[in-house]
């Protein structure tokens, strides 16, 4: 009688252990799937935000900072006299529910005399 | 005796009257920036001479007439292509103050101010050894704003073998600042203004070289405010040996200065000796120098006495070039827009332009020197270009050589009349068959226009032949129709109705420049906002 009860308890313990393992595996699988989907969505949002940011042209309205440079950095089309003026501009996008991206942009303007009319 | 005295006196008064008459009849046009050069220096000029107390004293007109009338060689026309500084006394709008130095006599004038002359000794006027450069240094403080609060000029006086500095903050009252003589005897050359970053802050300095026949080739940095010597570097003069392959001879050409990190302070200088050894000198805030010979052109047996011109350039990476150059853009015009790639890529380099003479022929040299040069540039590393004749039929895509070489050179068809200038990557050099340097000052009869890195033609022979001659120093102008044009700075005439420039995305290609291409936007970096989103 005693041995039968012991076997029953063992079986119950085994069933409980197996079922808990199965449940936890299920739970972990579910969670990882959800995390994966969330990560993928976030990555897509990040890409979308970056793509939107990169699509912006020089007319981008959200300029968060700017400053004038003492002189323009070197470039391929060299000017031997100061005919250009350079500024750095920080641009950001602030779209709703999208990751914000910023760019540091160098703007080069011409400083040349105007033809007399 | 009395008869002879009367004749002598009469002769002197006749001379004064004659000079004054000539001057009044030719001295109407004074100095609109684009107008012809002032015709007379005496008629309406004010002259200042250094007195024994070390201050500038105004000269009476008759004394000035005698001094200048007796010197047939003295240039009556101030140099029209000298530096221009916007000057204002605070009460009026800034006006363009123009400067000229001919034979040690400093001159300045504006649209409203008649020519003012300054020199130390009226008896002797010696011709400067090198005519193409400005032969003066303008130091403004602050250096960037349109109207400087302080204006100092330093110029060489060949007759006295020294440099003089004058404070022209108030041009009506020139103040003598200092005179400086090199400790090593040599000829005086064009001084070069240099803003230095030192351990104590920023210092306006003037850079001078030792010139011809100095005991040792050397250069000096002199404080522009006080005339005190800040630093010097002397080089050993010795015979060229295997152990010392690069020994320097006379430093006659005025040096070029560069600001590599664009912080507003110079940190690199270029010197060239008479035989063509190009020395790169790096300077640190402690005013210590590190020199190395980056090019040796002495095998050409040419003489290098003309001021150097140097610029910083960002050369594209070879990999990027390989991709870009295969497929040139289909359209000649490129719409201004932001670059998609984050950050510019390329190799920083210095571009140094030199002029030399050999057997009464002039040569132009353009050297591209990377920041870490692997070898000393020799003439055989350079591409020889034929600058004598223009090819016809120039396309927008220049025939490419396999890679950017160490540079190029060529014989000029005539003597240059001013230093080379670079606009949007195209080199312009006016030349003239006549070597006249004074009357009709520096009027060119031909324009050399070449791709800066390749030395190839940018404009067709027809375009260059259509330039109205003679012309003075060229400059870029923004036309009312939007095109960027090349004009004669002195006479205001149009030389090229639309200039071309190197395209940023293709080193071998040029494009016609238009106002609509500016401002140019270049993305330097792209990053996420980490504080606001997460």
* Number of helical elements of chain B: 5
Low-confidence stretches of chain A: none
What structural category arises from helix and sheet content of chain A? Answer: alpha+beta
Q: Strand-residue fraction of chain B?
A: 35-45%
Terminal CA distance of chain A reads: 118 Å
How is the secondary structure organized here?
The complex is a heterodimer of chains A (117) and B (534).
Chain A: H1 2-55, E1 63-68, E2 84-92, E3 101-110
Chain B: H1 2-26, E1 46-50, E2 56-58, H2 61-69, E3 84-87, E4 95-102, E5 105-109, E6 116-119, E7 137-141, E8 150-157, E9 162-167, E10 175-180, E11 192-198, E12 201-209, E13 218-223, E14 229-234, E15 256-258, E16 268-272, E17 277-283, E18 289-296, E19 309-315, H3 318-326, E20 347-358, E21 361-370, E22 383-384, E23 407-411, E24 415-416, E25 421-423, E26 426-432, E27 446-451, H4 461-465, E28 474-478, E29 484-488, E30 494-496, E31 500-503, E32 506-512, E33 520-528, H5 530-533
Parallel strand pairs in B: 1-6, 22-23
Antiparallel strand pairs in B: 1-2, 3-4, 4-5, 5-6, 7-8, 8-9, 9-10, 11-12, 12-13, 13-14, 15-16, 16-17, 17-18, 19-20, 20-21, 21-23, 24-26, 25-26, 26-27, 28-29, 29-30, 31-32
Q: How would you describe this protein?
A:
The complex is a heterodimer of chains A (117) and B (534). Chain A is an alpha+beta fold. Chain A has 2 domains: 1-55; 57-117, no CATH class. Chain A is 46% helix and 21% strand. Chain A has one helix at 2-55, and strands at 63-68, 84-92, 101-110. In chain A, strand 2 and strand 3 (101-110) form a beta hairpin. The longest helix of chain A is centred in the N-terminal third of the chain and has 54 residues, at 2-55. The radius of gyration of chain A is 32 Å and the shape is rod-shaped. Chain A starts with a helix and ends in a 7-residue tail after the last strand. By secondary structure, chain B is mainly beta. Chain B has a domain at 310-534. Helix content of chain B is 10%, strand content 36%. In chain B, a hairpin with a 7-residue loop joins strand 3 and strand 4. Chain B is globular and about 60 Å long. The interface between A and B is large, with 42 and 56 residues. Chain B: It comes from Rheinheimera riviphila. Chain B: This is VCBS repeat-containing protein. Chain B: Keywords: Signal.
């Amino acid at each position: 009688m005693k041995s039968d009860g012991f076997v029953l308890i063992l079986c119950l313990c085994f069933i409980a252990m197996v079922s808990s393992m199965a449940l936890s595996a299920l739970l972990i699988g579910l969670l990882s799937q959800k995390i994966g989907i969330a990560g993928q969505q976030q990555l897509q949002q990040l890409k979308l935000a970056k793509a939107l940011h990169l699509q912006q042209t020089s007319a981008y309205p959200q300029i968060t900072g700017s400053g004038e440079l003492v002189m323009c950095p070197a470039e391929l089309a060299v000017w031997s006299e100061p005919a250009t003026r350079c500024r750095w501009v920080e641009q950001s996008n602030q779209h709703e529910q999208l990751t914000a991206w910023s760019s540091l942009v160098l703007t080069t303007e011409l400083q040349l005399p105007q033809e007399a009319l | 005796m009395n008869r002879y005295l009367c004749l002598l006196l009469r002769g002197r008064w006749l001379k004064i009257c004659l000079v004054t008459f000539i001057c009044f009849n030719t001295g109407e046009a004074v100095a609109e920036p684009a107008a012809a050069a002032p015709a007379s220096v005496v008629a309406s000029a004010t002259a200042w001479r250094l007195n024994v107390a070390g201050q500038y004293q105004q000269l009476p007109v008759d004394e000035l007439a005698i001094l200048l009338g007796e010197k047939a060689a003295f240039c009556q026309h101030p140099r029209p292509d000298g530096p221009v500084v916007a000057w204002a006394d605070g009460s009026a709008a800034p006006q363009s103050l123009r400067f000229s130095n001919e034979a040690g006599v400093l001159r300045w004038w504006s649209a409203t101010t008649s020519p003012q002359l300054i020199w130390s000794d009226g008896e002797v006027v010696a011709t400067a050894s090198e005519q193409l450069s400005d032969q003066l240094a303008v130091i403004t403080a602050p250096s960037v704003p349109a109207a400087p609060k302080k204006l100092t000029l330093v110029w060489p006086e060949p007759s006295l073998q020294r440099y003089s500095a004058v404070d022209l903050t108030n041009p009506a009252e020139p103040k003598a600042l200092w005179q400086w003589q090199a400790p090593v005897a040599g000829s005086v050359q064009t001084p070069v203004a240099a803003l230095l970053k030192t351990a104590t802050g920023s210092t306006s300095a003037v850079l001078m070289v030792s010139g011809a026949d100095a005991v040792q080739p050397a250069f000096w940095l002199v404080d522009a405010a006080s005339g005190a010597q800040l630093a010097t570097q002397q080089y050993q003069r010795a015979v060229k040996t295997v152990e010392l392959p690069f020994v320097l001879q006379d430093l006659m050409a005025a040096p070029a200065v560069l600001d590599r990190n664009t912080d507003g302070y110079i940190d690199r200088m270029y010197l060239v000796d008479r035989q063509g050894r190009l020395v790169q000198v790096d300077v640190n805030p402690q005013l210590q120098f590190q020199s190395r010979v980056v090019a040796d052109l002495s095998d050409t047996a040419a003489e290098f006495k003309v001021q150097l011109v140097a610029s910083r350039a960002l050369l594209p990476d070879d990999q990027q070039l390989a991709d870009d150059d295969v497929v040139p853009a289909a359209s000649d015009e490129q719409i201004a827009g932001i670059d998609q790639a984050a950050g510019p890529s390329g190799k920083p380099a210095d571009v140094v332009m030199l002029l030399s003479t050999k057997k009464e022929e002039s040569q132009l040299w353009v050297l591209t020197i990377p920041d870490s040069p692997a070898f000393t540039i020799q003439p055989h590393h350079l591409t020889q270009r034929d600058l004598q004749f223009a090819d016809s039929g120039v396309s927008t895509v220049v025939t490419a050589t396999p890679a950017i070489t160490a540079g190029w050179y060529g014989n000029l068809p005539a003597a240059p009349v001013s230093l080379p200038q670079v606009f949007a990557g195209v080199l312009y050099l006016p030349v003239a068959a006549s070597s006249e340097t004074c009357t009709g000052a520096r009027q060119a009869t031909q324009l050399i226009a070449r791709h800066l890195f390749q030395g190839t033609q940018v404009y067709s022979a027809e375009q260059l032949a259509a330039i109205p001659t003679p012309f003075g120093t060229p400059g870029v102008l923004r036309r009312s129709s939007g095109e960027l044009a090349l004009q004669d700075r002195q006479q205001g005439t149009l030389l090229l109705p639309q200039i071309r420039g190197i395209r940023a995305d293709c080193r071998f290609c040029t494009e016609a420049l238009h106002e609509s291409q500016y401002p140019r936007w270049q993305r330097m970096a792209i990053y996420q906002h980490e504080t606001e989103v997460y």
